[in-house]
Structure formats: structure tokens, C-alpha cells
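Now for a specimen:

…
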Amino acid sequence: MNKVFNRRRFIISALSGASVGLVAGPAMAQKTKVKYNFSSASFGGAARKPRVKYKGKRTVNYRTNEKPGTIIISTRKRRLYFILGNGKAIEYGVGVGRAGFQWSGVAHIGGKQEWPAWHPPAEMIEREKKKYGRTLPAVMEGGPNNPLGARALYLFQGNKDTLYRIHGTNNPASIGYAQSSGCIRMMNEEVIQLYRKVKKGTKVIVL
């Protein structure tokens, strides 16, 4: 499947909230461009409540023709599935993009990072200061207080970094919510588990 990443059509008013996430790269070019995609739950507009309260990972029945090791993400259900084969998958709860910043497509894991650093762009630092009176750091080194959490899996198409990530979060209460600008966030302990399971080149499907 060679589907290019795309964001769903959205209402311009959704852009009034601050988006916090990783930069939307060239592969994400759309009619309406979203520049930033930082996904700390401390930022962004109001989010809907989770459809189902998350109680931790579990093994579930999951039919697919994809091979074991594939990652499939349902943004509607706010769940990530690590395919085991034989009709089974490990189901994880995730946080997803808020209204106007959701996307779908196919990619692969092009890189992995433990305790990734956070680099908010200068424009975002200025905007947060002006709009909310918050002073963001130029760089936040990896650690427990970092909004990117304990691990990051970098999503690529071909040899291009899409600049979307599957990553941990320093706000576990955000799991099940739509608050980010496109990145997929997980509980830190669970993203560590997933990080150990996947290799570079792992296929990722976002629905």
C-alpha cells in the first residue's frame, strides 16, 4: 500500500489552540499546512473524553493479513495493535491527533531513540510566550519531564523522515484523548515495551 500520509479535512477554527508536536515534514504537504506537531498534553486545545477508559495493554483477537510485528493504529479507537499472528495482537491505548491534526497512511520505523530531546521551534517559543505567557526552553534534554517521554519511534516513508513519532508521554492521563498534532503517544512503560519489540523497518499503518 503506497498511500501518502494525509490529514483529514478540518475546520479552521481548530487551529486557534496551540499545537504542540513535531514538525510536519514535506511528505505531509496538504492544502492547509500545519507547521508544528509537539504533543505534550500541557498544550493544545480542548480534547474529547476517551471513548473507553484505558486499563492497560492486553492481548486481543485481531484479524489481519499483515505479518507479525506490524504496527496498526486506529485513531478512531485510540488504540495501537502490535500484530502477533494467528489472529492475535497486543492492544495498547494511545493518544492521537486532535481535531484538524489527525492523519492516516503507511510508513515504517526509520529510527529509534531512548529518552529523546525536545526542540521546540523558535516560532512556537514566541507564540507560547505571547499567547499563554509560557516560556518554552530552546532544548529540553531527554528525561522524565520531557513531553516526548521515555522512547520515540521515528516514522519514515522511503528514506524521508515524516517527522511524526510514536512516543511516550509525561502525562499518562492523556492516553485515550485526542490532544496532539498528529503524533501517537503511549504510556512510558508501554512505549518502552514496544520499543524493545520493534526493529527499524517495521511497517506502521495508521487508520
Observations:
- The chain has a mean pLDDT of 74.
- Residues 6-45+97-196 form one domain.
- The chain is about 10% helix and 30% strand.
